[in-house]
Records
---
Amino acid sequence: MDFLNSDIQTIFPFIRESEVLEHTIDVNVIMGGDSRHVRIEVLRLHNGGGYSTRTYVETDIEAPMPLPPHGSARSWCVMDMPWTHANNAEQALRSALSSLRGRCDKGS
């Protein structure tokens, strides 16, 4: 039996929900006149419910302690995007990319 295709909650009852990361795509886009790195993850829902996505944007954050050279760090932060659901991974990714297009500067 393939572990990732098994009923993982039966094997590990402390897990309430699970998803499998099927694909990740990193893209560079222009938003608000700035170049931004965006990561979209395509998730296979373990309950047989199809595919969904999560989107992150790379963001400068204040470091808890000074870091050279400028005391800042970069982190992937969740990007508020419309919920996606599809029957396959490609459809979910296309839906997420279409939503992202609406956030990007026109003509870029």
---
Amino acid sequence: MTLLRFLAATLVLSAFLPTSAWADAQVDRNGTGIITITDFDGTADDITVTTVGATRVITSPTGLLPGSCSGGGASVTCTVGTSIAA
């Protein structure tokens, strides 16, 4: 029963963590077409950017927040931009 209480408390407390706690970086695309990858923790991340048709697919095994793009978790998709900033 103690383990069940611990798991329940962990689940409830995790709801109060900031969204940056769930990923190491965030991906945004602004109105001028610049795709920006913002790091949260200052450590090196293994981030890959590929072009698939009219989209850029940004992946990271440590997790990404979609910002103004779509997806989240290990993969974020943005409309192709004019450039990429990190």
---
Amino acid sequence: MNILDKLRGRTEEQKKIIVWAIVIVFGILLFNFYLKAAVEKIKKEGIEDIGSQMQFPDIEKMINDMPNPGDIKSLPSGTLPFLKENP
């Protein structure tokens, strides 16, 4: 209870500084654990396997399947209802 009494005697600004200091220290500790886990996973599985787990080929396929901006007029009518056709 002695710690609580010391905190009660401080100004609001000092209390905020103490809380933010605790939050920052806690955040640094969590980030440290995250980095250690990431490094351990990379060592365990190898750097080559990480790209295949993120499914980059699927993203490339989606990008390649997108229509070019010049092909908008060749799309079937009703595909882009918000565009008005030019007479």
